[in-house]
Amino acid sequence: MTAVALVFAGLAALLHVYIWVMESLTWTSPKTRATFGTSAEEAEATKELAYNQGFYNLFLAVVTAIGIGFIAADHDDVGAALVFTGAGSMVAAGLVLLLSSPDKARAALTQLTFPAIAVVVLAISLL
């Protein structure tokens, strides 16, 4: 069961790396603007904020990936703490988006589903 949790944690980390790319590297591109529903003017005005926010997503992905590595190296306590921190923060951020911007429910659910599954399955596997 731990392996299933780590697969979902890994998918969550990969998704958040992709979000980092969009927010920090391609924010003003037409494809990213279409994904986030922003105009060229809005994207240009918010690119510094998006750049910073993208790095939060990257850091959560890195923490989660390091946790996966620790579990793979049989350091389950440290690894689980890191996966719970990284993936749990992804879930919390998705919930904040869902509650603060209900019109972005699809994005919020996309952001929080993989990490939520990882957290629940990892918790069950450690019982």
Structural commentary:
- This protein is mainly alpha-helical and 127 residues long.
- It has one domain (2-126).
- It is 87% helix and 0% strand.
- Helix 1 (2-25) packs antiparallel against helix 3 (40-72).
- The protein is elongated.
- It starts with a helix and ends with a helix.
Structural class: mainly alpha
Q: Estimate what percentage of residues fall within beta strands.
A: under 5%
Task: Tell me the major beta sheet.
Answer: none
Uncertain segments are none
Radius of gyration over all CA atoms, rounded: 15 Å
- Say how many strands there are: 0
Average pLDDT score = 97
Question: What is the H/E order?
Answer: HHHHH
Number of helices: 5
Number of domains: 1
Summarize the topology.
Blueprint lengths: L1 H24 L4 H7 L3 H33 L3 H25 L4 H22 L1
Helix pairs in contact: 1-3, 1-5, 3-4, 4-5
List keywords for this structure.
about 130 residues; mainly alpha; 5 helices; about 85% helix; elongated
Brief sketch in words of this structure:
The protein has 127 residues and is mainly α. The chain has five helices and no strands. The chain has helices at 2-25, 30-36, 40-72, 76-100, 105-126.
